[in-house]
Design a protein that fits this description.
The structure is a single chain. This protein has 433 residues and is of the alpha/beta class. It folds into two domains: 116 residues, Urease, subunit C, domain 1 (Roll), CATH 2.30.40; 286 residues, Metal-dependent hydrolases (TIM Barrel). 39% of the residues lie in helices and 23% in strands. It has 16 helices and 16 strands. It is globular. The protein binds nickel (II) ion. The site of nickel (II) ion has 5 residues, from loops. Nickel (II) ion binds next to loops.
């Protein structure tokens, strides 16, 4: 049994008015047992350790609802290109040369960056997912993992078998820190028959589906030519939306598409920065939310962002909707909800995303004693509009410290950076001499 007491400003994300300027939070083993003003610890709670952080805000860990973690190895390798040449001439040839070990180290690099920037949980889609799962288990963070499935590619059937095997081996691993979804890549890279097969397996194994949807105008054109429908209409007709689905991007939607997504409670992973960098467009996030859709935030891969910093993503998501609609769109607290509780709902995680009794102890503390956080008028506004990744001081996942005083406790960051550098340069040399 371990009991920890953290004294800090507490932003529990249980409602817009919930904030304890001199608060405390008690953790017993993996769970939060109480949250409130200083002095709210029950009489029997005798902590083994007390963290006094009066100038920090403690809040739920951030949740990245769409990424390709190992693409950190491609960070800065190909930029400022149109989407199709970027994929076909740069990304895919590089990815063809990645070994299982490369993916392990690329994912570990992503996890270092995520921990430093306050992300406790990610939804990943990639290959060699056993390696990704092992990297997450070693890091001590939380993740939902999906094998990226290109149904129309030469390895479509094998990849589907790998996703099935991934469920068997890792669903619920690490005391429930790791869970699995199926990862059909997109409506334009998977046939109807293939998507039906994926759906049957997801239902049989009782896990969700994670898919890119309506990301670019090209995708809309392809689906219209092939099926005479929008991607959302087509996936709906295939019955894909009957279970838990995370639809990444959802940039190009008709009003009818929005109705379909809302009616089927499809969860939206919004990737504002990737959509801007690849010039994909601006997702109608305020419209989706106004209709009742649950939206989480994602960074997408480090090749189209180029970082995995959800603080930057929050700021971009807010500013982008303000530019699209008006300055009242997507206020700071709503953006924080998308990055925490909205993300947990998107990933189908229970008892994650808020600081409340019975919830899992996934939390971060942010050092507010810095010039860019004074004066302290509004903590939510500061976190969304003024915070940086490097402001995160502490991280705890499932009741265990992952970072203290900005030092990573579970990962050898020096070794991981070195491995990533050597491996990425090896592949670049193979391809470009
Ligand atoms: Ni993506």
């Amino acid at each position: 049994m371990s009991k920890i007491l953290i004294r800090a400003m507490v932003l529990p994300m249980t409602g817009p008015d919930a904030f304890f300027p001199r608060g405390e939070i008690g953790i017993e083993d993996q769970r939060i047992v109480f949250v409130g003003e200083s002095g709210s610890a029950p009489a029997g709670f005798v902590p083994d350790r007390i963290l006094e952080l009066p100038n920090d805000v403690v809040m739920p860990g951030l949740i990245n609802t769409h990424t390709h973690a190992a693409m950190t190895l491609l960070r800065g390798y190909a930029d400022d290109l149109p989407l199709m040449p970027w994929l076909k001439e740069k990304v895919w040839p590089f990815e063809d040369r990645l070994t299982d070990e490369d993916i392990y180290w690329g994912t570990s690099l992503a996890l270092c960056e995520m921990v430093r920037s306050g992300t406790t949980t990610m939804l990943d889609m990639y290959a060699s997912m056993d390696q990704v799962a092992e990297a997450v288990l070693a890091a001590g963070t939380r993740a939902v993992l999906s094998r990226g499935l290109i149904g129309n590619g030469p390895n479509g059937e094998r990849a589907l078998q790998e996703n099935i095997e991934l469920v068997r081996r890792y669903h619920g691993a690490g005391d429930g820190r790791v869970s699995i979804m199926f990862g059909p890549h997109a409506p334009y890279t998977c046939s109807a028959d293939y998507l039906r097969k994926v759906k049957i397996e997801a239902d049989r194994l009782n896990v969700g589906i994670h898919i890119h949807v309506a990301e670019t105008q090209d995708e809309i054109n392809i689906l219209r030519d092939q099926h005479g429908k929008t991607p959302v209409q087509w996936l709906n007709e295939l019955g894909l939306f009957s279970g838990h689905v995370v639809a990444a991007h959802c940039v190009h939607l008709t009003p009818q598409d929005i109705e379909i997504l809302v009616q089927h409670q499809v969860y939206i992973a919004h990737n504002a920065e990737s959509n801007m960098k690849l010039s994909s467009g601006t997702a109608p996030i305020t419209d989706l939310r106004a209709r009742g859709a649950v939206v989480g935030l994602g960074t997408d891969g480090a090749s189209s962002n180029n970082n995995l910093d959800l603080f930057g993503e929050m700021r971009s998501a807010a500013f982008q909707q303000k530019l699209r609609v008006d300055s009242t769109a997507l206020p700071a607290y709503q953006v924080l909800e998308m990055a925490t509780i909205g993300g947990a709902q998107t990933l189908g995680l229970e008892n994650v995303g808020m600081l409340a009794p019975g919830y899992k102890a996934d939390l971060i503390t942010i050092d507010m004693d810095q010039p860019h956080f004074y004066p302290r008028f509004s903590i939510p506004a500061h976190l969304v509009y003024a915070a940086h990744a490097g402001d995160v001081r502490t991280m705890m996942v499932d009741g265990k410290f992952i970072m203290e005083e900005r030092e990573l406790l579970t990962m050898d960051v020096g070794r991981i950076c070195q491995e990533a550098e050597i491996r990425a340069k090896r592949i670049s040399k193979e391809l470009n001499g």
